[in-house]
Amino acid sequence: MTRPRTSHHSYLPLGISLIIGGGMSLIAALVVSYGELQSKQHEFEEQANHFSQHFQGHLDQYVQVTEALGTFYKASDNVTRQDFQIFSQPWLQKYPEILGIAWAKRITADERIAYEQEIKAEGLTGFQIQDRNSEIIGKKSEYFPITYGEPSNIYQSYLGVDLGSIGSLQQSLDKAKDSGEIVTSQNLELLTRKSGFILFHPVYKPRTDPSTIEERRQEFMGVVATVYQLKNVLDKALKDVPHHQLSFAIFDTLAKEDNHLLLTFDAQTRTLATPKKNQYSYSLPFICQKFIDCQRALSVADYQWSLIVIPNFNLLPILAMPAAVFLLGLSLTGLWVMYLWNTLSEKAYIEKLVGQRTAELRQAKDELEIRVQERTAELQIANEGKNELIGQIGHEFRTPLTIILGFIDLFERDRNLNSKQQKNLIIIRRAGEYLLTLFNNLLEISQLETQTNFINLTRVC
Question: Which residues are paired to 149 by β-bridges?
């Protein structure tokens, strides 16, 4: 027998079970994935924070070097070339990643000729204020020529170069002059044709403490500068953490170009790379865009860089366990749904079978009732015939039996009968009464009448 299809309402538990099971499986998978991601994220953040703090410490040291140079100028009435060399050499030896230390004196247009003659008198006969291409600079309101530079073997050829004529350095010089604080330049091409940045510390006239912009501009003497190549700085930082296994990229967040890319580090090859010319973009991994904050802020005096640390893990291994949990949950849900399906199918099959059997029993009952009615009618007819027959028999028996018993009563009154005759009469009476009792019982059994008719023997006088 083919199993029936259940109604749509019968399938409602299947749908509910599937929805609940699928939802619970998804929730369990999300909980597991969240735990896995949190664990990886915590591990990553520890490494990223450790490196960013370590690198920030290096940058702070360079700011302190620049601060020390500014303090040296502030404490001295007149710093000679020899004084500058003596003070700079220990810093260069301690921090070999510093490309150079320079003193750029502020020279007004009126002071230019006298300044150049003064420097020439020190033995630098070819000295003149020039640009980075060794071309004489025309008339300006002020100049910032490199007066002292260390190491001397590098900066000897750069003496007299006006820092204000290089890229955006004039803005940094003006900011240092007006703020009285250390100022960091944008990343730019240095005099050595390498990419780097410069820290400027403003120097004011001795024994002055200007507090307003006007006073600072009036007392301003120039800047002491420390020059760095970012690649060298990072090389030094990475040497101090040789087990660093995270790739990263550094952006100049304040550059005119959006997210100006400064440098990248590949942890697998352990190589630092500077971007190609006009390469300002960098594609962040998907995990950094959606799940983990990979950005760390770096401050260099007043400037801001953005350190993007790239996680060394991908999402596939992290999603493997949640996927397994989800599939396991779906499998259990599927087994439960199959069990319910079989149960509901069995129930529907039994219900239909019971219905069929009930219908068959009802049909059999109806047929039996019809047969009973037929048999009842037949029995009624037979009973009527029987009653009629018994009535006829009773009529035929009652009349002669009454007569016989009547005569027996008469004979019993006769006193001339001998004992044998009297004994025979008693036997006849008993036989008659017995027959009368049998007939009455027959009438009672057959229920010929509602009330039992008994043939009562009465004495006939």
Answer: 102
